[in-house]
Amino acid sequence: MTHGSRHGGQPSSPTPRVRLVDVAREAGLSKTTVSAALNDTGRLSPAVREKARETARRMGYRPNATARQLRAGRAKLIGYVVGEAVDARSVFLESPYFARLTGATAATALRRGYAMVLLPAGSLQSEWADLPLDAVVVTDPDADDRIVDDVLAAGIPVFSDRSVEGRPGAYWVDVDTEAAVRSALDHFHEQGARRPVLVVPDSTTRFHTEVFAAHREWCAEHGLPERVVRVGEAGNGPVVRAVETALTGDPAGRRPDALLVVAEASPPLVLAAARRHGYDVPGDLLLACVSEDVTAEHTEPPVTTLSLRPEAIAEAGIEHLVRVLEQGGREPAGTLVPTRLDVRASSVRQHG
Amino acid sequence: MTHGSRHGGQPSSPTPRVRLVDVAREAGLSKTTVSAALNDTGRLSPAVREKARETARRMGYRPNATARQLRAGRAKLIGYVVGEAVDARSVFLESPYFARLTGATAATALRRGYAMVLLPAGSLQSEWADLPLDAVVVTDPDADDRIVDDVLAAGIPVFSDRSVEGRPGAYWVDVDTEAAVRSALDHFHEQGARRPVLVVPDSTTRFHTEVFAAHREWCAEHGLPERVVRVGEAGNGPVVRAVETALTGDPAGRRPDALLVVAEASPPLVLAAARRHGYDVPGDLLLACVSEDVTAEHTEPPVTTLSLRPEAIAEAGIEHLVRVLEQGGREPAGTLVPTRLDVRASSVRQHG
DNA sequence: TTGAAAGCGCTAACAT
DNA sequence: ATGTTAGCGCTTTCAA
Q1: How many independent structural domains does chain A possess?
Q2: What number of helices (H) and strands (E) belong to chain B?
Q3: Using the CA of B31, which nucleotide's C1' is the nearest one?
Q4: Is residue A230 within 8 Å of residue A245, measured between CB atoms?
């Protein structure tokens, strides 16, 4: 090989990295002074501070993060793992909600100085016990998730996008379910629907439980029959089948005039199912899905969605995390963030 | 201060973690001995080794990863970032390909002892310069991606799922494009199609360039006209519009009898577009999409897909990475992995 | 076969 | 205002 190979692995030190002491020597100062200058601490004369900085810049100095971590006792590293409530774990990122929550969490965390390590879905704490994690974000945990317990037992604080009330060290951000369900059902009602049907996962997560409860309450208030179809499993197949069940109508053969799908499914597939069952959307069926799927905007007609606003959840969660980690003060365990109903043609009754 | 607060460090350490020296003291041994016992190095009497291990276990000792890193000089941390070729960067994970590649990369890496940090899409090296990354995985970089340059300039090896030939320190795994395109077109041909049309992104990535070339070559070989529609932008909207252009037929008004969509789009949406244009699939149009989208299995008819096998790419890439990092030997810069054609009803001519 | 001691690169008490 | 020094917790020569 001709050209001096500077890449390769560490074994044969690629480029003997510039250390603090090198900068100090070069600038004719001490480590302390240079360190203070770069970290903007201590009392230094402006001239010296500038000189230290200039030298560091010129030499291309990059502080060694590991050494800093060791000194600080914190690694500025957080884990991100999917809880047990998620079924199709190996491919959880394919869900637009998780995809966006994940990306937003990583971005927000980094902005606040924390690197986010993606932990394999469904992995147990033992698999990553060696990592110096300051905290772990557990998405969509079960009511009594084992991963949450494992992490807490290891003395690591847990942050979640689902309520994990009552466990010290566990914090959460969740959506305002009550308001969410009402916004969708109120919208249907305003559009004239009187026989709405709900498709919701048969799970123990707070969100789904509360969706069910909020729907029941709303129906009672409005004197409308409570029609619900529960989905046992996650995935497009099961959800579409549940939708089809919902669309066949009640035992008396009365067909619904509005459909709220809370289980995650591809909006185009839900729409196609409605078509197969002879519904015109929005002519004789108003449709809304709880979904972050962008394909909802591209169907004919576009599908109304109730967005859980994963970015907002991520931001609130990371702010919370940083506050707990850095101020250590007694923070509230939970926070609610609002949802957003994006009304599109699929749920707007035509005039005339 | 009431409780003996060691100097620099955590605000108020939750559980004063057990250190190596604690185990040593408890076992009546030295740090050296315990370290050797736990790492299975050195020459120790079986009795002592067992005693050290037992004590460590009993005390719940967990080695401090940061200290180890500082000693070792490597952090066992790799970065993962999306290259410049990806358009909708903020939501790149919503693409099933990226979602699966990302998850599989994280899982494989962790299995090999490396934690994967998810870096915000489109972020520059400066935003995470502080992280002690041993390597960075750049997905879908442009032909001369700036992120790749930045990372290489920082002396960090780069691994990619797209060819980045010719830059020392850059390694890649890519798909066998030629074989991929041929498998799809051959399949169409076997099913009797004679007027296939290709929809492909107008990008400079090796994959898309080679898809174009392989298609041209295949058409020439088979004496068939080369029909191609280029998509300028990523996203369901632009791709669906390109599909519609492709389906309107050539200037002479001759309509295609097979459609290969290489640009990423939701299969249900592509299918719906074909319907809108009066095609029966697979009756008068055979359809195949390059996609990892699971919704392809749930349409009516299910859509044939050409899978790039992100999991295989991830595994090959991480194996490669580990080899380069740990053996440092002169490894080949690139590897090809095969694709897989999942034939479904959308591309199978009916009998009778 | 085991232990003492040096030091990875950095920051912060404590001098000067 | 700047420098000296002592570690953070671990692994690894090198002595005993």
Answers
A1: 3
A2: 11, 12
A3: C3
A4: no
**Which bases on strand C have an atom closer than 7 Å to a protein beta carbon?**
1-13
* Cis previous bond, B301, omega within 30: yes
B220 touches strand D (CB under 7 A): no
Q: Per-residue pLDDT tens for B92-125? A: 777 889 989 999 999 999 999 999 999 987 777 7
Domain with B52, as residue range(s), is 20-63
Q: At what angle do helices B236-247 and B267-276 cross, to 10 degrees?
A: 40
Q: Which residue has the higher pLDDT, A83 or A38?
A: A38
Averages of pLDDT over each 10 residues, chain B, 352 residues: 32 67 94 95 91 94 93 94 65 82 94 94 80 92 85 90 82 94 98 97 87 97 96 92 92 91 95 96 97 94 97 96 84 92 96 60
CATH number of the CATH domain containing B181:
3.40.50.2300
Let me know whether B203 and B170 are in one domain: no
B171 and B315 in one domain?
A: yes
- Do B185 and B122 lie in a common domain? no
| Domain shared by A247 and A292, yes or no | yes
Residues B249, B185 share a domain: yes
Asked if the structure places residue A94 within a domain, the reply is yes
Chain B residues 207-226 with a CB less than 8 Å from chain A: none
Confidence of residue A293 (pLDDT cuts 50, 70, 90): very high
Nucleotide nearest to B47 (CA to C1'): C1
**Separation in Å: C3 C1' and B37 CA:** 14
Burial of A57 (0-12, 13-18, 19+ CB in 10 A): exposed
Q: Do A103 and B110 touch (CB under 8 A)?
A: no
Nearest nucleotide relative to A36: CA against C1': C11
Tell me which chain A residue has its CA closest to the CA of residue B122.
Answer: A107
Q: Tokens for B143, please give them.
A: 């032909």
Coil, strand, or helix at residue B146? helix
Q: Is B327 on the interface with A (CB under 8 A)?
A: yes
